[in-house]
Amino acid sequence: MANIFTRLKETISADLHEALDQKEQKNPIAVLNHYLRQCEAETEKVRKLVERQYLLKDEFNREYNEAVHLAEKRQRQAEIALKAGETELYEFALKEQSHYEERVARLEESRQQTTRQLEELEQKYEEMKHKVKDMHIKRMELMGRENIARAHHRMNKVVDQGSFSTKAFTRFEEMESYLDRLEQKVNQDYHRSTIDARIATLEKQLKTEETNAIS
To answer: pLDDT (tens digit, 9 = 90+) per residue, 99-126?
Structure first.
């Protein structure tokens, strides 16, 4: 049964990697975003572990301080019982003192170990945060390069002497031809209107001269 589950897990994992490979070929930025989200999730887990380790360290400190206090208390009580000649009470307080001192030693070792572990976690957490930040920057760089690549690809479609570029150039030529025709028409209309205006002015001047001459 275990072998079946193992093979099933390996098959699912292989299919997943194959799907990611295909997706990477189509959209590498999307795959990068996927991995980035996973890294951010792992970093968040480590952050929570750091917080828990801080709480654990504080708890060890409280237990340590309490054990030190009780050990010192039993030591004073043992001294008082000894002076008072209370042998049974003295032995009990002495036994309690020894017990608390052993606890102090144990808690001190655990406290130091917890502190070392916390320092390691903090270092790992900072490293992970830096790596995630670097990955964000890398993603922006790759997005910029991808944009440039897409832009060049589209420009090459227009500029290259291929089947698509022939159609593209045809469109440009048609547009240029249309603009030329439009420019010619505008110029003709302008000259025509200018000529008409000048002729009308000349006719008016001639009529004025003829009228003056008859008068």
So the answer is: 999 999 999 999 999 999 999 989 989 9
DSSP secondary-structure letter at 161? S
Which of 126, 153, 121, 146 is closest to 33 using CA atoms? Answer: 146
Question: CA-CA distance, 32 to 42, in Å (whole number)?
Answer: 15
Question: Are the C-beta atoms of residues 118 and 57 closer than 8 Å to each other?
Answer: yes
The token pair that represents 134 in the structure block: 């670097």
Whether residue 132 contacts residue 43, with contact meaning beta carbons closer than 8 Å, is answered with yes
Q: Which two tokens stand for residue 36?
A: 């980035």
The whole-angstrom separation of Cα 104 and Cα 73 is 13
User: How does pLDDT run across 21-36, given as a tens digit for each residue?
Assistant: 555 556 777 778 888 8
- CB contact set of 186 (below 8 Å; sequence gap of 6+): none
Which residues, in sequence order, are CB contacts of 46 under 8 Å at separation 6+?
121, 124, 125, 128
Report how far residue 50's alpha carbon sits from residue 43's, in angstroms, rounded to the nearest whole number: 11
Contact 132, 39 (CB under 8 A): yes
Say how many C-beta atoms besides its own lie within 10 A of residue 112's C-beta. Answer: 11
**46 near 126, Cβ under 8 Å?**
no
